[in-house]
Specification:
Elements: H1 5-21, E1 27-28, E2 44-49, E3 54-58, E4 64-65, H2 70-82, H3 103-107, H4 118-129, H5 134-149, E5 155-156, H6 158-167, H7 169-180, H8 188-199, E6 201-203, H9 205-211, H10 213-216, H11 231-244, H12 250-256, E7 261-263, E8 268-273, E9 277-282, E10 285-286, H13 293-306
Antiparallel strand pairs: 1-10, 2-3, 2-9, 4-6, 5-6, 7-8, 8-9
Helix pairs in contact: 1-13, 2-4, 4-7, 4-8, 5-8, 5-9, 6-8, 7-8
The protein binds glutamine.
């Protein structure tokens, strides 16, 4: 179904207004103390279609902590560095457990189930780090985001990174546990330092939707013509986003929204409508699985109104 630019703009504005009026917002994450300071009433939504039309609603230009959404981009970078050998270090099956769970690592010899749970993303960060010094690894991740978002002003929120560095004991446990199986190559404190910092990149919905365009368009940004990954790789990253992007809420997200998507505890979600659009939504209140409560509801409304679910109208 083709959606005209004016219809897209009015649907996005409508949904942003409806979401702002809702009393149910979920709970802002507090386990990273700095994230607890975010305004729970914030809401932003940006959709960029194949022609480059940008439909924006609400707080679309307010930066927020992208947190686990960064895992899509570190996966993309690491695949570019080591190719399919990456899958020897991390699986690609849904975990059915919370994002920070440790239990499965014991049964699978320290190999995380997928690159989007914390353990998997820490293992991917380790792969990137093996090819760099810590500062260079972080610089490369940040530059990748800036290039994809076409915005060199994107920065890491140092207060968020420091806050997680002080309190990220569980991620420390995951990393040490994987290290005991030889799954992590580099010193654990370096790996965690890079991981906490890439999670603390701050972006707006507009920047994030721009950065995700290559996933919606067979690996290339249709406006710049810049090829980021081959089409097959974009398709596969989307597949992992669909099955694993919302942790143990991935089934529910596919059922209700019907798009590949990746959430973060900052309340953001990047969603991909293949061939149609890249979508970023932000609402800091989370549901029980740690995914944005209103973000998911907004995306459900969007795909229903536009007929964009990959599973049919
Ligand atoms: N930095 C966060 C953590 O490791 C990311 C988790 C998330 O966004 N789900 O706990």
């Amino acid at each position: 179904m083709n959606t005209s630019a004016s219809r897209l703009e009015s649907v996005v504005r409508e949904i942003a207004e409806e979401m702002r009026a809702r009393p149910d917002r979920g709970e802002v994450a507090t386990y990273i103390p700095e994230l607890a300071r975010v305004d729970p009433g914030a809401f932003g939504l940006v959709v960029i279609d194949a022609d480059g039309t940008v439909a924006a609603g609400g707080d679309s230009d307010v930066p927020f902590s992208i947190q686990s959404i960064s895992k899509v981009f570190t996966l993309t970078l690491a695949l570019g560095m080591v190719g399919d050998r990456l899958w020897r270090r991390v699986g690609r099956e849904p975990s059915g457990s919370p994002f920070n769970s440790i239990v499965q690592l014991e049964y699978e010899r320290g190999i995380p189930r997928n690159p989007f749970i914390n353990a998997g993303a820490i293992a991917v960060t380790d792969l990137i780090l093996s090819r760099h010094k810590p500062r260079e690894a972080l610089g490369e991740i940040l530059r990748f985001m800036q290039v994809l978002a076409q915005d060199s002003s994107i920065v890491i929120d140092e207060a968020v990174a420091a806050s997680e560095q002080r309190t990220g004991f569980r991620n420390g446990a995951l990393a040490h546990y994987m290290k005991s199986f030889g799954v992590i190559e580099n010193p654990v404190e370096y790996v965690l330092g890079v991981y906490f910092h890439h999670c603390a990149i701050a972006m707006t919905c507009r920047q994030l939707a721009t950065a995700g365009r290559f996933l919606a368009h067979a690996g290339r940004d249709p406006t710049t013509g810049h090829s980021v990954v081959p089409p097959e790789r974009a398709r596969r990253i989307n597949a992992v986003m669909l099955t694993c992007g919302h942790y143990d809420g991935s089934g529910e997200f596919a059922y209700r929204v019907g798009l590949p998507g990746k959430s973060g505890v900052g309340g953001g979600i990047l969603a991909v409508a293949p061939g149609k659009a890249s979508i970023a939504v932000w609402s800091p209140g989370l549901d029980a699985a740690g995914n944005s409560h209103l973000g998911r509801i907004a995306l459900e409304a969007l795909t229903r109104r536009l007929g964009w679910s990959i599973f049919g109208v």
